[in-house]
Amino acid sequence: MQKSLSPVANKRRPLDGIRVIEIGQLLAGPFAGCMLAYFGAELIKIEPPETGDPIRGWRVLENGTSLWWRSLGRNKKSITLNLKKIEGQKIARQLIDTADVVIENFRPGVMEGWGLGPTEIKKTNPKCVYARISGYGQTGPYASKPGFASVCEGMSGFRFVNGFADQAPVRPNLSIGDTIAGIHAALGITLALLERERNGANEGDGQVVDVALYEAMFNLMEAVVPEFDGAGVIRQPSGTTVTGIVPTNTYRCKNRKYVVIGGNGDSIFQRLMEVVGQPEMAYDPRMANNAGRVIHEAEIDHVLATWCLSKDSDEILALLEKARVPGGPIYNVEDMFADPHFNARGMFEQVEINGKPLKIPAILPKLSETPGRTDWPGLEVGSHTQDILENILNLSSAEINTLREAGVI
C-alpha cells in the first residue's frame, strides 16, 4: 500500500476529527462513506468476517479483489464483526458510542433487530448523526420492501424519460441510483453536522438523515412535477434529445464517432447554422427563439445530422469551437485517460496495490483551501480490526483472541 501522490497531502480537510461508522454494503452507504473519508473523516467500516463487502468480489478482479473496491474503499479502516452474534453487536455499539456519524443502508428494521437503531443509540450518544439509506425510506407503505437501485430508478420516474419512445426504458450501465443516494446522504450528514456545531455545547443535537433511493432519483426530475400538475403534461422519453430544447442532440460523424452539439441559445443557433452552411436558417424568424425551433425541430435536426455525416468528428469539433458553439465528443474511459483537461484538473489519483500503480478517480467537489485526497486505496478485509479493538476500545490481546475464536471477528 502506498499513499496517493497528491500535492495536498498535508493540508487540513473539512471533516478532520469526525469519526464515522459505516455499517452496510454494496454501493449507496459505502459511496457516502467514501466521500466523507476523502474529505478527512476517520471512516471505520464494519464488515462481515472473511467475505467483507460483496463489492470486493464484483466485476474486474486482480488477485481476488475487485479493482472497484480500491476506489470505493479508499481511506477506510476495515474491522470485521459478526453482527448476528450478541458479542458483535456489543462491540459495534461501543464503536458507535465513540462516533459522530453512523451510516447504514440495510432494509428498515434490521439495525433495530441488532439493538443498533437510532433510538437506542441516542440514549448513549445523543450527538450522533445517524444516516439511513434504503430503497423507499424509513416510513410509508413501501418501507419494508427490498429496494435495489434498478427498481428504485424505475419508480422515481427517471427510467421513464430515459430512452426512446418506441423501446423499453433504458438504464445507464452504472448503478446511478445508489451513487446519487450516496451523494444525498453525504450532503444530509454534513448539514446535520453543521447544525450540531451551531448549537455548540448542546450534546443532544444528533439527528436522523433518512435517504431513499427512489427519492434521490426523484430529486433529479426538474420540471416533471409542476408541468404535470399545472398543465397535465407527462414528460415522455426523447432519445438523444431533450424535450422542449432545440437544438441539442448527439450526431454520428463520417469517421463513425459521435459528437454532442448544444446550439439552443438564440445567438448560438445563428452561429451554428452559419457554420453548417445554412445562413437562411440562421436568420429565419420562425427559428429566432427556442419556441419556434421546437416547432421546426425535425428540419433543424436533419440539417445537423447530414452535416455531421459529411465530416470527421475532429473537424466538426474544431469548427464548432471556432464559432463558439458548445460541442464535444462522446468519451469512453480510454479517451478520458488521454485527454489533457482531465489530467490537468487532477481527475485521476494514483495509488499502489501490491507494488503496482493503479489510477482511481478523484472525488468531487473541489475545494480551494481544504481539498480532499486519497490517503490509501481500499485495503483487505479486516485490515484494522486489531488496531481498532486495541486502541479505540482498549481490548486486551486475550479478549481479542476470544472474539476471534468465537467467530465474532
Q: Largest sheet, described in full?
A: 6 strands, parallel
**What would you say the CATH architecture of the largest domain is?**
3-Layer(aba) Sandwich
User: Which range best describes the helical content: under 10%, 10-25%, 25-40%, 40-55%, 55-70% or over 70%?
Assistant: 25-40%
Query: What is the strand content?
Result: 5-15%
Rough outline: elongated
The overall pLDDT, averaged over residues, is 95
Q: Strands of the biggest beta sheet: in what spatial order?
A: 5-2-1-6-7-8
- In the CATH hierarchy, the third-tier topology of the largest domain is known as Rossmann fold
- Fourth-level CATH superfamily of the largest domain: Crotonobetainyl-coa:carnitine coa-transferase, domain 1
Count of alpha/pi helices: 19
Low-confidence stretches: 1-5
Instruction: Let me know the number of strands.
Output: 13
Distance N to C terminus: 23 Å
Q: How many domains make up the 3D coordinates?
A: 2
Secondary-structure-based class equals alpha/beta
Question: What is the alpha-carbon Rg in Å?
Answer: 25 Å
Summarize the structure.
With 409 residues, the chain is of the alpha/beta class.
What distinguishing features does this structure have?
409 residues, alpha/beta, Rossmann fold, formyl-coa transferase, domain 3, six-stranded parallel beta sheet, three-stranded antiparallel beta sheet, 13 strands, disordered N terminus
